[in-house]
Specification:
single chain; mainly alpha; two-stranded antiparallel ribbon; elongated
């Protein structure tokens, strides 16, 4: 005899358990795994990004992520997001097999939102600094520096691209 999922004696968590198979938990697992990879890759690429350059053989400088607080924020923010996503992987299964209690799901959703906000802030700040480094600011009198440190700028662009991928994945996790 078929069970009616809308019958009065069935709780919402029981209906969710009956109607959802392994799809949602598998999707959460895949999305969080991609978030781990993209976040940690962005953090490692930016943290190891360094290029030396000089003017006329006399004046030497080093371009690295430590030169800007925004780039340090990107490294820390994406590293935190990657570690959080890694730590949260087992909890996806625990919440799924416990019947997804609303209180526990709420806190996981809240932490997901906080991490996504952290990555959004870090990525936006680093993008602003990278844009000024690439295009300069004629009003403030800042010249673009990417002509001198193209390797550093290219790796920064890659780290920013990966952090935007991480941001998108974290947003998708919130929707799921």
């Amino acid at each position: 005899m078929a069970t009616n999922l809308t019958e009065p004696g069935t709780s919402p968590s029981q209906r969710a358990k009956k109607s959802s198979g392994p799809g949602p938990v598998l999707l959460q697992f895949v999305l969080r795994t991609v978030a781990v990879a993209s976040s940690l890759a962005a953090s490692v690429i930016m943290a190891t990004n360094k290029q030396r350059f000089g003017f006329v053989g006399i004046f030497h400088m080093v371009a690295d992520y430590k030169a800007s607080p925004c780039f340090r924020f990107l490294v820390a923010g994406t590293a935190a997001a990657g570690l959080y996503s890694l730590i949260s992987l087992p909890f996806v299964f625990v919440l799924h097999f416990q019947g997804s209690k609303p209180k526990k799901s709420f806190f996981m959703h809240l932490f997901d939102l906080m991490i996504m906000s952290l990555v959004l802030a870090a990525t936006a700040a680093a993008t602003g600094v990278a844009y000024v480094g690439k295009k300069g600011n004629t009003v403030a009198g800042w010249s673009p520096i990417c002509g001198f440190v193209s390797h550093f700028c290219n790796k920064t662009e890659l780290a920013l691209l990966l952090s935007y991928v991480s941001l998108l994945i974290l947003f998708l996790i919130l929707i799921v």
